[in-house]
Design brief:
The complex is a heterodimer of chains A (about 270) and B (about 260). Chain A is of the alpha+beta class and about 270 residues long. Chain A has 15 helices and 4 strands. The two termini of chain A are about 15 Å apart.
Chain lengths: ~270, ~260
Protein backbone atom coordinates (compact mmCIF):
# COMPACT_ATOMS: atom_id res chain seq x y z
CA UNK A 1 0.00 0.00 0.00
CA UNK A 2 1.38 3.41 -0.89
CA UNK A 3 1.08 5.77 2.01
CA UNK A 4 0.50 9.25 0.80
CA UNK A 5 -0.25 12.05 3.27
CA UNK A 6 1.88 10.30 5.87
CA UNK A 7 1.52 12.39 9.01
CA UNK A 8 4.51 13.21 11.17
CA UNK A 9 2.58 12.35 14.33
CA UNK A 10 2.20 8.79 13.10
CA UNK A 11 5.90 8.05 13.07
CA UNK A 12 7.42 10.67 15.35
CA UNK A 13 8.66 8.90 18.48
CA UNK A 14 7.59 10.65 21.66
CA UNK A 15 11.15 10.64 22.97
CA UNK A 16 12.30 12.30 19.75
CA UNK A 17 9.62 15.00 19.98
CA UNK A 18 10.40 15.64 23.65
CA UNK A 19 14.12 15.82 22.97
CA UNK A 20 13.64 18.32 20.12
CA UNK A 21 11.41 20.46 22.30
CA UNK A 22 13.95 20.27 25.07
CA UNK A 23 16.55 21.72 22.71
CA UNK A 24 14.24 24.42 21.36
CA UNK A 25 13.32 25.77 24.77
CA UNK A 26 16.92 26.10 25.89
CA UNK A 27 18.05 29.64 26.56
CA UNK A 28 19.51 31.26 23.50
CA UNK A 29 17.88 29.05 20.89
CA UNK A 30 16.38 32.05 19.12
CA UNK A 31 19.82 33.71 19.17
CA UNK A 32 21.25 30.69 17.43
CA UNK A 33 18.56 30.88 14.74
CA UNK A 34 19.32 34.57 14.32
CA UNK A 35 23.03 33.81 14.04
CA UNK A 36 22.37 31.24 11.35
CA UNK A 37 20.15 33.57 9.34
CA UNK A 38 22.35 36.65 9.77
CA UNK A 39 25.55 34.89 8.67
CA UNK A 40 24.18 32.74 5.85
CA UNK A 41 25.50 29.69 7.64
CA UNK A 42 23.30 27.35 5.65
CA UNK A 43 24.84 28.65 2.42
CA UNK A 44 28.28 28.23 3.97
CA UNK A 45 27.68 24.54 4.58
CA UNK A 46 26.18 24.06 1.17
CA UNK A 47 29.47 25.27 -0.31
CA UNK A 48 31.27 22.65 1.77
CA UNK A 49 29.01 19.84 0.72
CA UNK A 50 28.97 20.75 -2.93
CA UNK A 51 32.76 21.01 -2.85
CA UNK A 52 33.53 17.84 -0.87
CA UNK A 53 30.75 15.45 -1.59
CA UNK A 54 29.24 14.06 -4.75
CA UNK A 55 25.73 15.18 -5.48
CA UNK A 56 23.57 12.43 -6.85
CA UNK A 57 21.25 13.41 -9.67
CA UNK A 58 18.93 11.80 -12.16
CA UNK A 59 21.71 12.15 -14.71
CA UNK A 60 24.77 10.81 -12.87
CA UNK A 61 23.07 8.15 -10.72
CA UNK A 62 19.73 7.43 -12.38
CA UNK A 63 18.97 4.18 -10.60
CA UNK A 64 19.72 5.46 -7.11
CA UNK A 65 18.08 8.79 -7.78
CA UNK A 66 14.91 7.04 -8.95
CA UNK A 67 14.77 5.10 -5.69
CA UNK A 68 15.30 8.35 -3.82
CA UNK A 69 12.76 10.41 -5.74
CA UNK A 70 10.14 7.66 -5.43
CA UNK A 71 10.70 7.71 -1.68
CA UNK A 72 10.31 11.51 -1.67
CA UNK A 73 7.07 11.19 -3.58
CA UNK A 74 5.60 9.07 -0.81
CA UNK A 75 5.88 12.06 1.50
CA UNK A 76 4.64 14.54 -1.11
CA UNK A 77 7.54 16.92 -0.55
CA UNK A 78 7.18 20.15 -2.48
CA UNK A 79 10.82 20.07 -3.47
CA UNK A 80 13.08 17.02 -3.56
CA UNK A 81 16.05 17.72 -1.25
CA UNK A 82 19.49 17.45 -2.77
CA UNK A 83 21.24 14.22 -1.89
CA UNK A 84 24.99 13.87 -1.43
CA UNK A 85 27.24 10.90 -0.90
CA UNK A 86 30.20 10.81 1.48
CA UNK A 87 33.06 8.32 1.74
CA UNK A 88 32.78 6.54 5.08
CA UNK A 89 33.15 2.98 6.31
CA UNK A 90 29.98 2.90 8.38
CA UNK A 91 26.33 2.94 7.38
CA UNK A 92 25.15 6.44 8.11
CA UNK A 93 22.94 9.15 6.82
CA UNK A 94 22.27 12.67 7.92
CA UNK A 95 19.52 15.15 7.34
CA UNK A 96 20.84 18.67 7.40
CA UNK A 97 19.52 22.17 6.91
CA UNK A 98 16.63 24.44 7.68
CA UNK A 99 15.39 26.34 4.64
CA UNK A 100 16.86 23.92 2.07
CA UNK A 101 17.53 20.65 3.84
CA UNK A 102 19.79 18.10 2.24
CA UNK A 103 20.51 14.43 2.81
CA UNK A 104 24.01 12.98 3.04
CA UNK A 105 24.45 9.23 2.78
CA UNK A 106 27.57 7.11 3.16
CA UNK A 107 29.08 4.94 0.44
CA UNK A 108 28.45 1.51 2.05
CA UNK A 109 24.71 2.12 1.95
CA UNK A 110 24.85 2.33 -1.82
CA UNK A 111 27.34 -0.52 -2.12
CA UNK A 112 25.73 -3.07 0.13
CA UNK A 113 22.00 -2.48 0.54
CA UNK A 114 19.40 -4.02 -1.74
CA UNK A 115 17.05 -1.63 -3.54
CA UNK A 116 14.32 -2.46 -1.05
CA UNK A 117 16.55 -1.73 1.93
CA UNK A 118 17.90 1.45 0.38
CA UNK A 119 14.37 2.67 -0.25
CA UNK A 120 13.56 1.97 3.38
CA UNK A 121 16.66 3.79 4.56
CA UNK A 122 16.07 6.83 2.39
CA UNK A 123 12.43 6.91 3.44
CA UNK A 124 13.45 7.49 7.02
CA UNK A 125 15.72 10.36 6.03
CA UNK A 126 12.86 12.08 4.32
CA UNK A 127 10.72 11.36 7.36
CA UNK A 128 13.44 13.08 9.34
CA UNK A 129 13.14 16.18 7.20
CA UNK A 130 9.38 16.22 7.76
CA UNK A 131 9.91 15.76 11.49
CA UNK A 132 12.30 18.72 11.71
CA UNK A 133 15.56 16.83 12.16
CA UNK A 134 17.35 19.10 9.72
CA UNK A 135 17.49 21.92 12.20
CA UNK A 136 18.70 19.69 15.01
CA UNK A 137 21.62 18.30 13.04
CA UNK A 138 22.36 21.83 11.89
CA UNK A 139 22.61 23.14 15.44
CA UNK A 140 24.78 20.19 16.42
CA UNK A 141 27.17 20.78 13.53
CA UNK A 142 27.17 24.50 14.20
CA UNK A 143 28.50 24.05 17.71
CA UNK A 144 31.20 21.73 16.42
CA UNK A 145 32.43 24.26 13.86
CA UNK A 146 31.59 27.68 15.24
CA UNK A 147 31.47 27.02 18.97
CA UNK A 148 33.35 30.10 20.12
CA UNK A 149 31.45 32.47 17.82
CA UNK A 150 27.96 31.42 18.86
CA UNK A 151 26.53 33.70 21.54
CA UNK A 152 25.44 30.76 23.67
CA UNK A 153 27.62 28.39 25.73
CA UNK A 154 28.09 25.05 24.00
CA UNK A 155 27.75 23.14 27.26
CA UNK A 156 24.11 24.17 27.51
CA UNK A 157 23.32 22.30 24.32
CA UNK A 158 25.73 19.38 24.35
CA UNK A 159 23.73 17.00 26.51
CA UNK A 160 20.21 17.73 25.11
CA UNK A 161 21.45 17.38 21.53
CA UNK A 162 23.22 14.15 22.46
CA UNK A 163 19.95 12.82 23.84
CA UNK A 164 18.04 13.87 20.73
CA UNK A 165 20.67 12.20 18.52
CA UNK A 166 19.76 8.90 20.13
CA UNK A 167 15.99 9.39 20.08
CA UNK A 168 15.76 10.19 16.37
CA UNK A 169 16.55 6.58 15.42
CA UNK A 170 13.30 5.40 16.97
CA UNK A 171 11.43 7.79 14.67
CA UNK A 172 13.34 6.43 11.69
CA UNK A 173 12.47 2.86 12.60
CA UNK A 174 8.76 3.65 12.81
CA UNK A 175 8.75 5.59 9.54
CA UNK A 176 10.50 2.68 7.83
CA UNK A 177 7.97 0.21 9.13
CA UNK A 178 5.01 2.33 8.06
CA UNK A 179 6.41 2.80 4.57
CA UNK A 180 7.63 -0.76 4.00
CA UNK A 181 5.03 -2.68 6.04
CA UNK A 182 7.79 -5.23 6.43
CA UNK A 183 8.88 -5.80 10.02
CA UNK A 184 11.55 -8.30 9.07
CA UNK A 185 13.17 -5.86 6.66
CA UNK A 186 13.14 -2.99 9.12
CA UNK A 187 14.45 -5.14 11.95
CA UNK A 188 17.35 -6.13 9.70
CA UNK A 189 18.26 -2.50 9.21
CA UNK A 190 18.74 -2.29 12.97
CA UNK A 191 22.11 -3.91 13.41
CA UNK A 192 22.87 -4.31 9.72
CA UNK A 193 26.13 -2.46 10.13
CA UNK A 194 27.37 -4.70 12.95
CA UNK A 195 27.63 -7.93 11.03
CA UNK A 196 27.42 -9.50 7.59
CA UNK A 197 24.13 -9.72 5.76
CA UNK A 198 24.42 -13.50 5.78
CA UNK A 199 24.64 -13.71 9.56
CA UNK A 200 21.87 -11.19 10.09
CA UNK A 201 19.59 -13.03 7.69
CA UNK A 202 20.34 -16.26 9.54
CA UNK A 203 19.54 -14.78 12.95
CA UNK A 204 15.94 -15.56 13.88
CA UNK A 205 13.95 -12.64 15.23
CA UNK A 206 13.35 -14.64 18.41
CA UNK A 207 17.08 -14.78 19.09
CA UNK A 208 17.51 -11.07 18.52
CA UNK A 209 14.56 -10.31 20.78
CA UNK A 210 15.99 -12.64 23.39
CA UNK A 211 19.31 -10.80 23.28
CA UNK A 212 17.44 -7.50 23.50
CA UNK A 213 15.42 -8.67 26.47
CA UNK A 214 18.56 -9.87 28.19
CA UNK A 215 20.02 -6.42 27.69
CA UNK A 216 16.95 -4.59 28.98
CA UNK A 217 16.68 -6.92 31.98
CA UNK A 218 20.17 -6.11 33.27
CA UNK A 219 19.70 -5.24 36.90
CA UNK A 220 21.51 -4.02 39.98
CA UNK A 221 24.96 -2.60 39.41
CA UNK A 222 24.84 -3.62 35.77
CA UNK A 223 21.72 -1.52 35.29
CA UNK A 224 23.53 1.42 36.83
CA UNK A 225 26.50 0.85 34.57
CA UNK A 226 24.13 0.63 31.61
CA UNK A 227 22.49 3.94 32.53
CA UNK A 228 25.88 5.55 32.79
CA UNK A 229 26.98 4.18 29.43
CA UNK A 230 23.66 5.21 27.87
CA UNK A 231 23.98 8.77 29.10
CA UNK A 232 27.27 9.30 27.35
CA UNK A 233 26.68 7.20 24.27
CA UNK A 234 26.12 9.03 21.00
CA UNK A 235 23.94 6.36 19.42
CA UNK A 236 21.11 4.28 20.83
CA UNK A 237 21.38 0.62 21.68
CA UNK A 238 20.32 -1.61 18.80
CA UNK A 239 18.68 -3.92 21.32
CA UNK A 240 16.53 -1.07 22.67
CA UNK A 241 15.52 -0.01 19.17
CA UNK A 242 14.52 -3.50 18.16
CA UNK A 243 12.50 -4.17 21.30
CA UNK A 244 10.79 -0.78 21.07
CA UNK A 245 9.83 -1.31 17.44
CA UNK A 246 8.60 -4.81 18.19
CA UNK A 247 6.47 -3.55 21.08
CA UNK A 248 5.07 -0.76 18.90
CA UNK A 249 4.22 -3.27 16.22
CA UNK A 250 2.64 -5.70 18.67
CA UNK A 251 0.81 -3.10 20.75
CA UNK A 252 -1.74 -2.43 18.04
CA UNK A 253 -0.65 1.16 17.48
CA UNK A 254 1.08 0.34 14.21
CA UNK A 255 -1.95 -1.56 12.93
CA UNK A 256 -4.30 1.23 14.02
CA UNK A 257 -2.28 3.73 11.99
CA UNK A 258 -2.22 1.45 8.96
CA UNK A 259 -5.95 0.91 9.29
CA UNK A 260 -6.52 4.68 9.33
CA UNK A 261 -4.63 5.05 6.09
CA UNK A 262 -6.45 2.14 4.59
CA UNK A 263 -9.77 3.77 5.55
CA UNK A 264 -8.65 7.03 3.97
CA UNK A 265 -7.84 5.28 0.71
CA UNK A 266 -11.24 3.60 0.76
CA UNK A 267 -12.94 6.94 1.30
CA UNK A 268 -10.99 8.51 -1.54
CA UNK B 1 42.67 -30.39 9.48
CA UNK B 2 44.83 -29.49 12.54
CA UNK B 3 45.72 -32.27 14.94
CA UNK B 4 44.62 -32.16 18.56
CA UNK B 5 47.52 -31.28 20.88
CA UNK B 6 46.89 -33.43 23.90
CA UNK B 7 47.72 -31.91 27.30
CA UNK B 8 49.41 -28.89 25.79
CA UNK B 9 50.34 -26.19 28.25
CA UNK B 10 50.93 -22.53 27.35
CA UNK B 11 54.23 -22.57 29.22
CA UNK B 12 55.60 -25.02 26.69
CA UNK B 13 55.43 -22.44 23.94
CA UNK B 14 55.80 -19.31 26.00
CA UNK B 15 58.33 -16.94 24.50
CA UNK B 16 61.40 -16.50 26.77
CA UNK B 17 61.03 -12.73 26.72
CA UNK B 18 57.40 -13.13 27.80
CA UNK B 19 58.48 -15.35 30.68
CA UNK B 20 61.21 -12.94 31.74
CA UNK B 21 58.87 -9.95 31.64
CA UNK B 22 56.14 -11.81 33.49
CA UNK B 23 58.55 -12.99 36.19
CA UNK B 24 59.60 -9.37 36.71
CA UNK B 25 56.02 -8.22 37.12
CA UNK B 26 55.03 -11.07 39.39
CA UNK B 27 57.58 -9.97 41.94
CA UNK B 28 55.14 -7.23 42.89
CA UNK B 29 52.49 -8.99 45.01
CA UNK B 30 48.80 -8.62 44.34
CA UNK B 31 49.06 -7.57 40.72
CA UNK B 32 47.34 -10.54 39.26
CA UNK B 33 44.47 -10.18 41.69
CA UNK B 34 44.15 -6.48 40.89
CA UNK B 35 44.14 -7.35 37.20
CA UNK B 36 41.42 -9.97 37.73
CA UNK B 37 39.22 -7.44 39.47
CA UNK B 38 39.76 -4.86 36.75
CA UNK B 39 39.16 -7.38 33.97
CA UNK B 40 35.92 -8.57 35.53
CA UNK B 41 34.66 -5.03 36.13
CA UNK B 42 35.54 -4.03 32.59
CA UNK B 43 33.93 -7.05 31.01
CA UNK B 44 30.72 -7.13 33.05
CA UNK B 45 30.10 -3.42 33.51
CA UNK B 46 31.30 -2.17 30.18
CA UNK B 47 32.06 -4.73 27.49
CA UNK B 48 29.13 -7.07 27.99
CA UNK B 49 26.63 -4.24 28.29
CA UNK B 50 27.97 -2.55 25.16
CA UNK B 51 28.11 -5.78 23.19
CA UNK B 52 24.72 -7.07 24.32
CA UNK B 53 23.18 -3.70 23.53
CA UNK B 54 24.72 -3.04 20.17
CA UNK B 55 26.31 -6.08 18.54
CA UNK B 56 24.96 -9.28 17.09
CA UNK B 57 25.56 -12.37 19.20
CA UNK B 58 26.88 -15.31 17.17
CA UNK B 59 25.22 -18.64 17.83
CA UNK B 60 24.79 -22.10 16.39
CA UNK B 61 21.84 -20.69 14.46
CA UNK B 62 23.25 -17.66 12.69
CA UNK B 63 26.95 -18.55 12.52
CA UNK B 64 27.26 -22.31 12.95
CA UNK B 65 30.50 -22.57 11.01
CA UNK B 66 32.24 -19.86 13.05
CA UNK B 67 31.10 -21.51 16.28
CA UNK B 68 32.29 -24.86 14.96
CA UNK B 69 35.71 -23.42 14.08
CA UNK B 70 36.06 -21.85 17.50
CA UNK B 71 35.10 -25.08 19.27
CA UNK B 72 37.53 -26.97 17.08
CA UNK B 73 40.39 -24.67 18.09
CA UNK B 74 39.41 -25.03 21.75
CA UNK B 75 39.62 -28.78 21.27
CA UNK B 76 42.97 -28.55 19.45
CA UNK B 77 44.50 -26.53 22.30
CA UNK B 78 42.61 -28.38 25.06
CA UNK B 79 40.60 -25.45 26.34
CA UNK B 80 37.18 -26.28 27.68
CA UNK B 81 35.52 -23.04 28.82
CA UNK B 82 32.54 -21.54 26.99
CA UNK B 83 32.72 -18.10 25.40
CA UNK B 84 30.15 -15.69 24.04
CA UNK B 85 30.98 -14.52 20.53
CA UNK B 86 29.75 -11.26 19.04
CA UNK B 87 30.04 -9.62 15.66
CA UNK B 88 30.61 -5.88 15.30
CA UNK B 89 31.58 -3.37 12.69
CA UNK B 90 35.28 -2.62 12.52
CA UNK B 91 38.03 -2.35 9.95
CA UNK B 92 40.35 -4.54 11.97
CA UNK B 93 41.80 -8.00 11.65
CA UNK B 94 42.12 -8.54 15.38
CA UNK B 95 39.78 -10.19 17.84
CA UNK B 96 39.02 -8.57 21.18
CA UNK B 97 38.57 -10.75 24.24
CA UNK B 98 37.42 -10.02 27.76
CA UNK B 99 35.99 -11.44 30.94
CA UNK B 100 37.03 -13.62 33.83
CA UNK B 101 33.83 -15.32 35.02
CA UNK B 102 32.17 -15.26 31.61
CA UNK B 103 34.35 -14.94 28.55
CA UNK B 104 33.57 -12.62 25.65
CA UNK B 105 35.02 -12.42 22.17
CA UNK B 106 34.12 -9.88 19.52
CA UNK B 107 34.83 -10.39 15.86
CA UNK B 108 35.03 -7.54 13.32
CA UNK B 109 32.57 -7.96 10.48
CA UNK B 110 35.32 -7.58 7.91
CA UNK B 111 36.86 -10.81 9.18
CA UNK B 112 33.51 -12.57 8.87
CA UNK B 113 33.34 -11.41 5.27
CA UNK B 114 36.89 -12.26 4.25
CA UNK B 115 38.61 -14.81 6.44
CA UNK B 116 39.17 -18.41 5.46
CA UNK B 117 38.79 -21.27 7.93
CA UNK B 118 42.52 -21.45 8.55
CA UNK B 119 42.75 -17.70 9.15
CA UNK B 120 40.00 -18.03 11.73
CA UNK B 121 41.82 -20.98 13.30
CA UNK B 122 44.87 -18.77 13.65
CA UNK B 123 43.13 -15.86 15.35
CA UNK B 124 41.03 -18.16 17.52
CA UNK B 125 44.28 -19.87 18.51
CA UNK B 126 45.62 -16.50 19.61
CA UNK B 127 42.52 -15.88 21.71
CA UNK B 128 42.55 -19.35 23.28
CA UNK B 129 46.20 -18.84 24.20
CA UNK B 130 45.28 -15.62 25.99
CA UNK B 131 42.47 -17.38 27.85
CA UNK B 132 44.39 -20.56 28.58
CA UNK B 133 47.40 -18.61 29.72
CA UNK B 134 45.22 -16.51 32.05
CA UNK B 135 46.59 -13.36 30.47
CA UNK B 136 43.39 -11.32 30.71
CA UNK B 137 44.05 -9.88 34.18
CA UNK B 138 47.41 -8.60 33.03
CA UNK B 139 45.92 -7.25 29.81
CA UNK B 140 43.39 -5.35 31.82
CA UNK B 141 46.11 -3.99 34.03
CA UNK B 142 48.04 -2.79 30.98
CA UNK B 143 44.99 -0.97 29.66
CA UNK B 144 43.95 0.63 32.91
CA UNK B 145 47.24 1.18 34.62
CA UNK B 146 47.53 4.86 33.88
CA UNK B 147 44.27 5.38 35.76
CA UNK B 148 45.54 3.71 38.91
CA UNK B 149 47.37 6.29 41.00
CA UNK B 150 48.88 3.92 43.53
CA UNK B 151 50.96 1.89 41.14
CA UNK B 152 54.48 3.20 41.04
CA UNK B 153 55.92 4.65 37.85
CA UNK B 154 58.46 1.83 37.87
CA UNK B 155 55.76 -0.82 37.45
CA UNK B 156 54.12 0.71 34.44
CA UNK B 157 57.00 0.13 31.99
CA UNK B 158 57.37 -3.43 33.29
CA UNK B 159 53.73 -4.25 32.66
CA UNK B 160 53.89 -2.59 29.24
CA UNK B 161 56.97 -4.64 28.41
CA UNK B 162 55.20 -7.84 29.42
CA UNK B 163 52.29 -6.95 27.14
CA UNK B 164 54.60 -6.55 24.18
CA UNK B 165 56.39 -9.83 24.81
CA UNK B 166 53.22 -11.78 25.60
CA UNK B 167 52.14 -11.09 22.02
CA UNK B 168 55.01 -13.31 20.84
CA UNK B 169 53.56 -16.20 22.85
CA UNK B 170 50.08 -15.45 21.55
CA UNK B 171 51.34 -15.58 17.96
CA UNK B 172 52.83 -19.01 18.64
CA UNK B 173 49.46 -20.17 19.95
CA UNK B 174 47.87 -19.10 16.69
CA UNK B 175 50.32 -21.21 14.72
CA UNK B 176 49.73 -24.22 16.95
CA UNK B 177 45.98 -23.87 16.47
CA UNK B 178 45.94 -23.64 12.68
CA UNK B 179 49.16 -25.64 12.13
CA UNK B 180 49.81 -23.76 8.92
CA UNK B 181 53.01 -21.76 8.82
CA UNK B 182 51.91 -20.12 5.58
CA UNK B 183 48.64 -18.86 7.06
CA UNK B 184 50.35 -17.70 10.25
CA UNK B 185 53.06 -15.71 8.52
CA UNK B 186 50.58 -14.15 6.13
CA UNK B 187 48.34 -13.15 9.01
CA UNK B 188 51.19 -11.33 10.71
CA UNK B 189 52.06 -9.59 7.46
CA UNK B 190 48.39 -8.62 7.11
CA UNK B 191 48.53 -7.21 10.64
CA UNK B 192 51.52 -5.17 9.62
CA UNK B 193 49.48 -3.43 6.95
CA UNK B 194 49.53 -5.43 3.71
CA UNK B 195 46.14 -5.22 1.97
CA UNK B 196 44.10 -8.38 2.28
CA UNK B 197 43.78 -8.62 -1.49
CA UNK B 198 47.57 -8.97 -1.81
CA UNK B 199 47.93 -11.86 0.63
CA UNK B 200 47.64 -14.68 -1.87
CA UNK B 201 50.72 -13.56 -3.82
CA UNK B 202 52.88 -12.69 -0.84
CA UNK B 203 56.21 -14.44 -0.40
CA UNK B 204 56.88 -14.00 3.30
CA UNK B 205 60.49 -15.07 2.97
CA UNK B 206 61.10 -11.82 1.09
CA UNK B 207 59.49 -9.86 3.91
CA UNK B 208 61.48 -11.70 6.55
CA UNK B 209 64.71 -11.04 4.65
CA UNK B 210 63.97 -7.34 4.51
CA UNK B 211 62.86 -7.09 8.13
CA UNK B 212 65.86 -9.06 9.35
CA UNK B 213 68.23 -6.51 7.90
CA UNK B 214 67.04 -3.86 10.35
CA UNK B 215 65.98 -6.21 13.12
CA UNK B 216 69.37 -7.84 13.33
CA UNK B 217 71.47 -4.78 12.61
CA UNK B 218 73.81 -3.42 15.24
CA UNK B 219 72.42 -0.91 17.65
CA UNK B 220 74.08 2.43 17.84
CA UNK B 221 73.23 4.95 20.52
CA UNK B 222 70.45 6.60 18.53
CA UNK B 223 68.79 3.27 17.77
CA UNK B 224 69.14 2.14 21.36
CA UNK B 225 67.56 5.34 22.66
CA UNK B 226 64.83 5.10 20.04
CA UNK B 227 64.01 1.52 21.01
CA UNK B 228 64.01 2.37 24.68
CA UNK B 229 61.70 5.33 24.37
CA UNK B 230 59.38 3.63 21.91
CA UNK B 231 59.05 0.39 23.85
CA UNK B 232 59.90 0.21 27.50
CA UNK B 233 59.07 3.85 28.19
CA UNK B 234 55.96 4.01 26.01
CA UNK B 235 52.50 2.50 25.70
CA UNK B 236 53.34 1.10 22.30
CA UNK B 237 52.28 -2.47 21.54
CA UNK B 238 54.50 -5.17 20.11
CA UNK B 239 56.51 -4.26 17.03
CA UNK B 240 54.86 -5.87 13.99
CA UNK B 241 58.18 -6.76 12.44
CA UNK B 242 59.45 -8.32 15.63
CA UNK B 243 56.40 -10.56 15.67
CA UNK B 244 57.04 -11.70 12.10
CA UNK B 245 60.70 -12.47 12.68
CA UNK B 246 60.15 -14.15 16.04
CA UNK B 247 57.50 -16.52 14.74
CA UNK B 248 59.57 -17.26 11.67
CA UNK B 249 62.62 -18.08 13.80
CA UNK B 250 60.59 -20.23 16.19
CA UNK B 251 59.28 -22.29 13.33
CA UNK B 252 62.65 -22.54 11.62
CA UNK B 253 64.35 -23.61 14.87
CA UNK B 254 62.29 -26.82 14.98
CA UNK B 255 60.69 -26.01 18.35
CA UNK B 256 57.23 -25.78 16.82
CA UNK B 257 57.57 -29.19 15.17
CA UNK B 258 58.84 -30.60 18.46
CA UNK B 259 55.69 -29.51 20.27
CA UNK B 260 53.49 -31.00 17.57
CA UNK B 261 55.38 -34.27 17.75
CA UNK B 262 55.17 -34.47 21.56
CA UNK B 263 51.45 -33.77 21.79
CA UNK B 264 49.94 -35.68 18.91
Amino acid sequence: MSLKHLRVDDFLYTGDASAMNAVKILPGFSKIMEFIAANSIEKFYRVIYTSSNLKLTAKNAPKIYKIYSDACEMFELEKIPDIFIERAYSYRTQVFGIENPIIIISTPLLENLSDEMLTCYLTSDIAGIKAGHGIMNFVDTLFNNFGALIPVPREVYAYPINQWNKQKYYTYDRARLLMSENFELVSKLIGIDETTDGILSATPLDERLEQGKEFLDLSGNKALAKSFLTMYSEIPWNSSRLIDLYNWHESGEYHRIMQNYSDEVDIL
Amino acid sequence: MPQKLYDINVFEYQHPADKAALDAVKKAPGFNKLGEILAEIESQYNDRILWLGSYIRLTDTNAPHIIELFNEVCDTLCFDRRCELYSYKAYSYRLDVGGIQSLLIRIPDIMLQRFTDDQFRYVFGQVVTILKGNMLPMFSLTKNIRNIPLISEAMKPMIGQWRRKAQLTIDRGGLLACQSFDVSMKYLILSSGLPYTMLDEVNYYDYVDEISKTYNSKNDLAKAVGKLTQTVLSDRGAWSNERIVELFNWHESGQYQGIIARHT
